[in-house]
Give the backbone structure.
Amino acid sequence: METRDAGAADIDAVVRLVNAAYEVERFIYDGDRTDATECAGLLGTGKLLLAEQDGVLVGCVYLELREHSGYFGFLSVLPTCQRHGIGRFLVGAAEDWFRRQGRSVSELQIIDVRGELAEFYRRLGYREIGTTRFPADVPARLPCHFIRLAKSL
């Protein structure tokens, strides 16, 4: 598996990948998880790291440097490639990049109604550090919030 930073030419492929990976969250909210405008904005505030196998985009993760930590989100793996270690690989790549950038903490947030996500990140050493509200401008079908997680690097 190879990784590379996404550029503007990758936005459409990233949108397709992320929306396919987040299809599982359709029970929470209507509509797509992202669009080209949001992905282009992410390239302005951080970077999208792409994972490719044999030239095919199979995963991505958003990386952002914050004052004292690194933040990652948008972890997405092509549904047909899930449960093959790609997500774990991308989390490791994110953590390695944060270390190289002088950060000693990695942070993320997950939606509380997806318990399998909390378990996945706990197995990788992440611990709960708080909660935040679900965005008011996203109409949710059920009450939910975000769980903030962190790990010392």
Q: What stands out?
A: The CA atoms of residues 38 and 113 lie 23 Å apart. The mean pLDDT is 95. The domain at 2-152 is CATH 3.40.630.30 (Aminopeptidase).
